[in-house]
């Protein structure tokens, strides 16, 4: 017999899409988010819950599978499937581009949890160029405090934000501040 880990992550975002993409990046550092190019479409793999099924699902959405067909195969609620489709729709728009991104699409991608690295991959550009364009569009990270326990515990959660979007969770206690690199 072998022991299997129950993988869990916590990600906070202003939209499901944003939190979902961040959660996927936390599970495996080689994953840039909800990427439809990591695994091929396979109906049998869609039926069985595994750690890789999300990427098969992404590939199926990119291949044009309907929300209803994916629901029949996966039994994942249609609401979640529609949110995942939103991510793939933005991915498809990014893949049509070659390096330069219209400001509106860049903001939409960032609002839906796309990292600079992820955007760069889809537009076949560099992460540095995406970061430069993001700064030119005045999409700048900042930190905001949230209270996740209604003042019951003496811990403050700080969130690194990109405009109005939550990107990285940092935790501060009374004596220590843990800040992760943006």
From TrEMBL:
Q: Name the GO cellular-component terms.
A: cytosol
- What positions does the domain Carbamoyl-phosphate synthetase large subunit oligomerisation occupy? 42-154
What this protein catalyses is:
hydrogencarbonate + NH4(+) + 2 ATP = carbamoyl phosphate + 2 ADP + phosphate + 2 H(+)
Q: Which InterPro entries match?
A: CarbamoylP_synth_lsu_oligo_sf, CPSase_lsu_oligo
GO biological process: what's one of them?
Answer: UTP biosynthetic process
Keyword ATP-binding included in the entry's annotation: yes
**What name goes with this protein?**
Carbamoylphosphate synthase
Q: Tell me the organism.
A: Polypedilum pembai
């Amino acid at each position: 017999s072998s022991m299997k880990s129950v993988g869990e992550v916590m990600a906070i975002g202003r939209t499901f899409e944003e939190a979902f993409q961040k959660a996927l990046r936390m599970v495996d550092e080689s994953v840039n988010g909800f990427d439809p190019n990591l695994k091929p479409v396979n109906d049998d793999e869609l039926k069985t819950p595994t750690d890789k099924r999300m990427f098969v699902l992404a590939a199926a959405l990119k291949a044009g599978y309907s929300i209803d067909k994916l629901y029949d195969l996966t039994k994942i609620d249609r609401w979640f499937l529609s949110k995942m489709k939103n991510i793939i729709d933005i991915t498809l728009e990014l893949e049509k581009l070659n390096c330069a991104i219209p400001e509106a699409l860049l903001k939409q991608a960032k609002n839906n949890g796309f990292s600079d690295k992820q955007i760069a991959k889809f537009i076949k550009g560099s992460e540095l160029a995406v970061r430069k364009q993001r700064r030119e569009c005045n999409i700048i990270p900042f930190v905001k405090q949230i209270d996740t326990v209604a003042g019951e515990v003496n811990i403050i959660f700080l969130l690194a934000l990109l405009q109005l979007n939550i990107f990285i969770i940092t935790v501060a206690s009374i004596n220590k501040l843990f800040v992760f690199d943006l």
